[in-house]
Amino acid sequence: MKLTLTFHGKKTRYRRHVSVRNLVSGSVLVSILFLVSSRSTESVMEDYARVQVAEALLRQDNNRLTELSDEIKVSLNAYSQQIAQLNKELTAMQQTQRALAERLNVEALFEPSKKVSDRAIGNTGDPLFERIETARLTIEDKQKQLALLEKLVAGHHIDTQVALSGRPIQKGWLSSYYGMRNDPFTGKPAMHKGLDFAAKAGSAVVATGAGLVTWSGERFGYGNLVEINHGNGIVTRYGHNSDITVKVGDVVTKGQTIATVGSTGRSTGAHVHYEVIKNGQQVDPLAYLR
User: Which of 112, 145, 160 is the last residue of a domain?
Assistant: First the structure.
């Protein structure tokens, strides 16, 4: 089957015979070309949309990285300040150590044989880490030197303040002695391993000798307790305090206020329970009250 197409002009006439089969094939071809062209346009738009989404995600990642960078800078600055404070405290410790060594005439023992920086891990490319490592090694050195200095002080007996004397209160009276007595709670005989000094609640509790505070806080039976190590195997304890004014690590002098009188722990009234411990064993403090 054929179709005849006729075109008339002013001077010419054009006639063409086309088979239906060819006409259908041409129509199908034109439709396919249109579809391909339309699909290509849609693909370009989809790709453009994907690029926009990717750019938005990259912007979010970049903003987050910027925030993280700022947080890291703040943290590093805080670490740097802490290290600077640590170095300041180490310098003060070194000055105290040097003064004590001079009093003992043993300065030569504390001259560093090798600089800490020489024993550090070297150039790691991380200045902050190197500063931390240097501070750590310095602290190790000071700990060893202070331990040696403590032994030397105990051996020379140069500081008379270390020797125990006097009462742990400024005003009050001796209310209970060291030894066997009737327990105030049970009424049964029990060993009393210290002296009790009755005093007005809130009045001062004082150290009976210079030393290092090794306990500052609540302890079973004692209530609020202060314990001081005086070296040479001597330790004193001050129990049942109301408030404590020193902390562990503090160096106290003879007569210094370390707490206030109270009635905490296993206590029946305001008083100070005073113990003297020699080489790990409680002894009668009465001999030290001279």
Answer: 160
